[in-house]
Amino acid sequence: MEYPSLIFSQLGPQLSNNIMIQNAMIRGYDGNGLFEQCLHLFDEMPHRGLKPHNFTYPYVLNSCSKLGWFRKGKQVHCRIVKDGFASSPSVAHALFHLYVKMVDLNDARKVFDEMYVKTIGLWNHMISLYVNACDVQSARKLFDVMPERDIVSCNSMITGYAEHGQHEEALNLFVQMQSRSQVPDNYTFVSVLSACSQLGALEFGKWIHYLIEDWSQFGAILGTALVDMYSKCGDINRAFTLFIKMGERDVFCWNVMIRSVAINGRTEDAVKMYSLMQKKGLRPNDFTFTAALFACSHGGLTKEGERIFYSMEKEFGVEPKLEHYGCIIDLLSRNGQLEEAVRLVREMPYKPDIAIWGALLGGCRERSHLKLAEEVIEKATELEANESGVYVLLSNMHASVGQWPEAQSAREKMEENKIWKNTGHSNVFAS
């Protein structure tokens, strides 16, 4: 813009005050990322006796949006209304995107409702705004009145349902898509498979698998979603078969498989997969270590667990997080190394959470270490966490050695703190 700016500065008043030339410069500044110059020229227009119009405002609003000058953007909006250009499609679109950038859902909706021309992209954008604001109900209301829907519209709603725990609604909407012969894409399948995983809807997941004619063409993301669905629905053999068939396996896919194998009780296989992954040239990340340590903890693989934990920072430069400490402390507590677990708790750079105190308490039970158990309970209560498990475990420990008054006291403390043991429940999905 240096050359156009130079020419513009040398123009006489008769040309430089021409609205078409002003708009060309404003558009040029905005299009080349010179947003402040764009707004400066806009502010000069009244002094030059010029009135901005529908070819001016879209670029001015875009510059406000890019700079994050939202107060200025609202001032421009007021002027747009005063000048009568709010109904212009290009101006309305620019206003809408300004309020989207501001994350101002109410004003974005007002502008949206006042638009005479709404493209399907704008409808989709408005639905995404509601989904991101956790207002899935409003998103669905808008979705239902759309004059036409595309795959992006459906994906936004299905993903919104899946991400906000309304998994059955996600599957129901997918069935509606199929009844309208709307062709799903990669994103649709991943979201629906995620919902199947959470519901344990194996038969529905198998149907999705059948609908994917060539899942390998979609790459690692969809393949991983299928592996995750089968493993969480209890068919670990099918999950492993798919994993082996995948041509492209990234770290995330290996992480899912390692954890899935561990959850299904094959902890030694999970540790073998952790080693095999590295032989394939992939570097483990935070989630890999969590999955591998989880496997060691639930398989009683103390030596392997300690080796993996201490290799994190030393060999891979990954600083252990609270969840990694939780896994190793649980492993040590479960397997008779309570003193080592206590040492780790004291030395770790994090404040222990209720899961870590619970792991220590479980170790105390194994060793009948009542004194340490009471210390753990005291520390756990400082967290003010509404966890009934630690109190119930302590009460049971006292009862197991015949200390009935102490057992009753632990239960009474739980009631005094208004902590109640939740009843169990299950989800049943009929496919």
Architecture overview:
With 431 residues, the protein is mainly α. Helix content is 71%, strand content 0%.
- What do the pLDDT scores average to? 83
Q: Please compute the radius of gyration using only Cα atoms.
A: 30 Å
H-E string = HHHHHHHHHHHHHHHHHHHHHHHHHH
User: In whole angstroms, how far apart are the ends?
Assistant: 62 Å
**Biggest β-sheet strands, sense, barrel:** none
The proportion of strand residues reads under 5%
Shape: elongated
Unreliable spans are: 419-425
Number of helices: 26
Helix content: over 70%
Oligomer: single chain
DSSP E strands, number: 0
List the helices and strands and how they pair.
Blueprint lengths: L1 H8 L3 H4 L2 H13 L3 H10 L12 H11 L2 H14 L5 H13 L3 H10 L5 H13 L3 H9 L6 H13 L3 H13 L6 H14 L2 H10 L8 H13 L3 H10 L5 H13 L3 H13 L6 H14 L2 H15 L5 H13 L3 H10 L6 H14 L2 H12 L7 H12 L3 H13 L15
Helix pairs in contact: 3-4, 3-5, 4-5, 5-6, 5-7, 6-7, 7-8, 8-9, 9-10, 9-11, 10-11, 11-12, 11-13, 12-13, 13-14, 13-15, 15-16, 15-17, 16-17, 17-18, 17-19, 18-19, 19-20, 19-21, 20-21, 21-22, 21-23, 22-23, 23-24, 23-25, 24-25, 25-26
